[in-house]
Each structure stands twice: as structure tokens, then as C-alpha cells.
Amino acid sequence: MTDDTPAIEFDSVTQTFGRITALSNLSLEVRSGEKYGFLGPNGAGKTTAIGLLLNFLRPTDGTVRVFGQNVQSNELGVKSRTGALPQGFTPYPNLTGREHLEFACSVREVDTDPDNFLERVGLSDAAEQKAGEYSQGMTRRLGFAMALVGEPDLLILDEPIAGLDPGGAGRIRELIHEQNERGATVFVSSHQLAQVETICDRAGIISEGTMVAEASVSELQARIDGGPRLAITLEDEPTSVPDAVMAIKGVEDAWIDENRMMVNCESASVRTDVLVAFEEAGIEVIDFETERASLEDVFAAYADTEST
Amino acid sequence: MILFTAFFGFSAWRIASSVQPVEAEGGRGSRYTFLEYPETFDAVYAVNGFISYTFHVNSFVFLVPLLGLILGYGAIVTPRATGQLKTLLALPCSRGAILLGKLLGRGIVLTAVIGVGLLVGWITVLVQFETAQTVSFVVFSAATVGYGFVWLSIGFALSSLLATPRQVAAAVFTVFIGFTFNWHEAAVDALGLFPDAYSVDPRQAYLVLASAPYEEIIPKVHLAPHEDIDSFGITVVGTQIADMAAVPLHLSWPIAVFVLGLWILLPLIITYNRLRRLSLT
Q1: One fold for both A8-223 and A228-292?
Q2: Which of these ranges, B78-92, B164-178, B195-209, has the smallest mean pLDDT?
Q3: Residue in chain A lying closest to B83 (CA)
Q4: A37, A50, B150, B280: which could join A196 in a potential S-S bond, CB 3.0 to 4.6 Å?
Q5: pLDDT value at position B241?
Q6: Do B280 and A104 touch (CB under 8 A)?
Q7: Alpha helix positions (H), chain A
Q8: Residue A54 and residue B88 in contact, taking contact as beta carbons nearer than 8 Å
Q9: Which residues contact B61 (CB under 8 A, 6 or more apart)?
Q10: B276 at A interface, C-beta within 8 A
Q11: Which CATH fold topology does A8-223 show?
Q12: Are the Cβ atoms of A56 and B279 closer than 8 angstroms?
């Protein structure tokens, strides 16, 4: 293996379940040392792809390789270099947090003190507690701690931040960066763009089992920042969209959503024009906020780019 | 499992304390033909009483499969349904090691529960009878544990072949009822394979092994527990049936060991292959 060997490689992978196609001809490459975000709405095929990486599933067609090794034929070889937090990580309810880590250490033949891992994810106080009594967030952190055992070369994390409080999420983000700095490749799936932004360098966007786009996170941000959405609260409940607003160059669309006026702008600079237009039309603006585009909007943006 | 252990112990006590030897030249029990009255007044009847259907739900032939299936049926399907199998497989754990671990863990519980029953049985036999053959009881005990592993192994296979705990429970129920009401016998008879094909029945193999140490007893070559439950009685038949003592090779104890071994191994091979190909969604 050379340094150029990708950490993860999906080579034209298709996965079907009966009549349902979960992944369709997916090709993907994650370079060694990268922090890669795998983005997509629920049901897009993210967990299926992770299932293939962990050999929970066998591809209907195509090949999945980790560090150049076929995952199917070298399961143990791959897993000895990989730490994973699968979706719906389920601990053994009658074992304590420490016992879970002891087990992970013994499987990986690691001498490190299990408490060290629990401390890193903030579970020291719950080390003696049975995992069946853990909250959802604590369970995710326990799963994350188990994934860290043995300093794996690759971390595969399925929605690692989902269900965590802000403090817990921050801690996990910090640990992911730490792991990456020591040389680990990180593969994070998420349906929330904001999470991937704070963790990853590069992201792939998957929708309906197909890769829609791949870009660096900064490119993604630029695309989204180009088109903010204004949510404006008016003194009087709006009944129709003022013509003056629709006439502004750079306003893509405007509509009434419950008691707020929503305006899609082409770029951030249009926002001021919109607010001025309301003022000039004699409509008092009480409050406004700028919403970032949702992941679905990003998909739509990419889909539009492709079709034009 | 504690209740099951208690019931197993109670069953062994009830059987060993109830069995009376045949006071005649020869006789016939529900499972065995007694060729002659034993010279020593030993525990042979009690030992073979443990596997007589005469004792209905107390019979080891009834209880051991139930225990094995109960312990085996959740082995794969439960961690698969809860997601714990993913937790294990996210670590560099080989699937063979996972299967071996589950077999060891559940096998230890199985052996412990059967062991309690056998121990209670042995103590009762010692109290009840003047002489008791230790070696014979050890052979019987080993055969009983082996028979338990057969059902544990069948439980594992069912657990790996079906996708949900409910489906596996239904399959276990069907298999258990099927064996209790002798669908095997019906199939063998219908195929015209009587009595030779009985040798592949794990129960027959168990009966052969349990009686192997006793020269004065041979197992009946066919099984009909539902009939025996209704019509059990000890009947003097005389030594003319000694001709039957010439047991054919396929009903001899080495073949019985082989048959039990196969019944343990084949379901485990099926389980391992399923575990290797399992789709965890």
C-alpha cells in the first residue's frame, strides 16, 4: 500500500433490497487523512453505504475497499484499522460503560485503561452505571468511545452528533478533530449541513442513492451563502406579497408562510433592498431573520446547475 | 431459567423415586424392552425412566429439547433485532468467534441446568436403590448433555434463518410440537423407511446411547410417545424377544454418537453460513 491508496473507495456500487434501489452506481473516494462529510436527507442511502463499509451488507454490484482492501474478503483486516459508530448503536443493557470499553480493548488487544476513553467522551461519572440506564446521548457517546479504542486509522461515524446536547456535541467535534490531527481519516454521515460544516473539509451529497455533488465545505458554504432566505415578521399580518418586493432585482421568490413573509434572495446584498422596499411601501417590519438554505435547497441548487 | 432448573430437578426426583423394577423374566417399558431381570437390583430402571414418556412433562426427552430450543432461539435473531450484533461486528470480531462465544455461553447454562437435574436424579437413585452404576450414569449424563446441545444447535439454526424473533418463536414452536407428536415417525412411515430411518432421529440416537451401558435393555426401534402416553404399561413378554438383542449396526451406539454429533454440527454450520451472509440493515 502506498500513501496514495484511498482510505475509502466505492467503485460503481449498487445496492438493492428487493425492488428498492438504495444505492445506484455510487462511486466515491476518500483520501487518507481527510475529514469527509457524507450528506443526504433521511433515506438517501447514507446508512446503506456505511453498512457496506462495515460489511453489514454485501453490494449487489461493485466493490467497496478500505485502505485498498476489499471489505468483504478482508473483513477483519479492515476492521482492525477501523473504528465505527454505526447508526442505532445498541449497547448491552446489563453491562456497565466500563465493561463495554474493557470488551472493546480486549477485542482490539489494547492495554489502555478503559476509563481513559470514558473520560474523553465525558462518561467517567457513569462508568459503573449499566448501559441500559444511559440516555440516548450517553449511549451515542459510549459508542463513540468504543470507536476510539486502538487509535484506528479510519473512523466511520454515522450521525455522531445526532441526539447530543450542545456540550456533548462540542466534545465529540473536538475529539474528531483530535483524531484527524493524529492522522486518522474521518468519514462522517449526517443529514444536517451545519454539522458537517463544523467537522469536515470535504463533503459528498447523496440523494436517492446517487451522488449529487462533491465539493469542499467552503464551496458548499459559498453556494448557500449566495442565496439566503429572509423570514420577515410584519406588524400587520400579511395578506399578499407587495409588488414592490417582487419587482426587486435579485428576489427569486416571495410568499406568505403563516404570519411571516418569506423572501428568497439571490445574494446577501439583496436583503437590504427587500427591507427598504417594505419600508417604502409603508409596511412596518417588526423583526427579520436570515435563514440559511436547507440541505434540500442545496440539492435543488445542484440539480438546477446540472440541468442548465 | 431458575424455574426451569427447579422443574428439571423436581422431574428427576419424581421419576427416580417412582420407578419400580420389573418383577419378571422380561418386560416392556415405554421406550425399552427389558430382556431379563437384572441380577443386581440396580438403578437401571430409574436411569431409563428419565427418558420415558410415561412421565409426560417430567420426561427428559420432553424437557431437554424445550430447554435447548429456549436457550438457542434468541442467539442470533435477538441481537440482530436489537442492533447488538452491529455493535459486535463494528469491532474486529470474527463471525466464527461470535458464534463460538454464544455457543459457549449458552452451552454452559444448558449444561448447568441439565447438570442440576442429573445431580438430583443421581442422589435420588442412590437413596432409592441398593446399587447404582456410576459409569453408566456418567454415560447417560454425557448423552443427555449431548442431546441438549443438539436442540441448542437447532435453536441457533432457526435463530439465524429467520428475520424476526416472532418468526423464530413460531418456528421453534412448530419444531417442538412436531417432535412431540412425532411428525418424524409419520414421515418415515410414509416413505416406507421403517425402521431403519429412525436411526437419524436425534431422539432415537439419545435412547440408544442412554441404554448402551446396560446389556439387559435395548431401546425399542421405533418411537410413538403419543401412543405410549395413552397405553403405557409394563407387560411381561418373555425372553423370546432376546432375538431382538442383535441390534443392527445403524442402531448401535457408535452410529448414535455420530448421529448426535451430526445434529449438533450441521445446524451450527448452517448458523455460521447464515451469520457470514447476514444483511444487517
Answers
A1: no
A2: B195-209
A3: A90
A4: A37
A5: 44
A6: no
A7: 46-53, 75-79, 97-107, 114-120, 136-148, 166-181, 193-199, 217-225, 243-246, 270-280, 295-307
A8: no
A9: B31, B51, B52, B53, B203, B206, B207, B225
A10: no
A11: Rossmann fold (3.40.50)
A12: yes
**Which of the residues in chain A have pLDDT under 50?**
1-2, 308
Give me B191's grid cell: 416413505
Q: Across the A/B interface, how many CB contacts are shorter than 8 Å? A: 59
How much is the ipTM here? Answer: 0.79
Output the CA torsion sign for B185, B187, B191, B197: negative
- A-facing residues of B in 54-113 (CB < 8 A) are 82-84, 86-87, 89-94
Q: Residue A86: list chain B partners with CB under 8 A.
A: 83, 86-87, 90
Q: Compute the residue count for chain A.
A: 308
Q: Peptide bond before B195: cis, by omega within 30 degrees of 0?
A: yes
How many whole angstroms separate alpha carbon A100 and alpha carbon B40? 57
CATH class of A228-292: alpha beta
CA triple A82-A83-A87, angle to 5 deg: 120
pLDDT tens readout for residues B191-248: 877 667 777 888 888 888 887 887 666 665 433 333 343 333 333 333 444 444 456 7
* Angle in degrees, 0-180, between the axes of helices B60-72 and B134-161, rounded to the nearest 10: 40
| Cβ <8 Å between A90 and B92 | no
Ramachandran area for residue A169 (φ above 0: left; ψ -120 to 50: alpha; else beta)? alpha
Domain ranges of chain A: 8-223, 228-292
Q: How far is A79 from chain B (nearest CA, A)?
A: 5
Cell 435420588 appears where?
B124
- For residue A61, how many other CB atoms are within 10 A of its CB? 13
Please judge whether B83 and A51 are an interchain contact, meaning their C-beta atoms are less than 8 angstroms apart.
no
Give the chain A residue nearest B280 (alpha carbons). Answer: A56
Separation of alpha carbons A297 and B264, rounded Å: 58
pLDDT of res. A225 = 57
